Amino acid sequence: MTREEVWQAVAESLKPRFGQLLDVRDVRRVRRVAGDAWQVTVVLAAKSGDVHVADVVVDNAGKITPALDADHVVEAVRRADEKKAPSELPPELADFGADVGAPSDGDDVPGLEMLEEVEEPIETRVAALIAKADPKSLQEARELLPRMLTDHDSRGRTLLTMAAVELSLKEPALARGYLEAAAREFADRFDLDALEKAATLALAIDGRDAFAGSPVHVLLERSRARLRPFNSIFDARSFAGLPEHLREKLESHLELRTLAPEEMLVTEGQPSRDVFVVKSGLLGVWLEKPSGGSWLVRCCFPGWLLGESSVLGGERPRCTASLRAERVSEVWVCPGSHVRALMEEDLAFGQRIAETKQMHRIDSFFSMHETMGQLDVQVRDEVLSCIQRLETFSDETLLLPANEVPSSALLVAWGSVALFEDSKKIGEIPADSFYGVRDAIHHIAPSVAAYALPGTTVAFFEGTRLQKLCERSPEHVVAVLERLG
Question: Is the pLDDT of residue 330 over 70?
Answer without folding.
Answer: yes
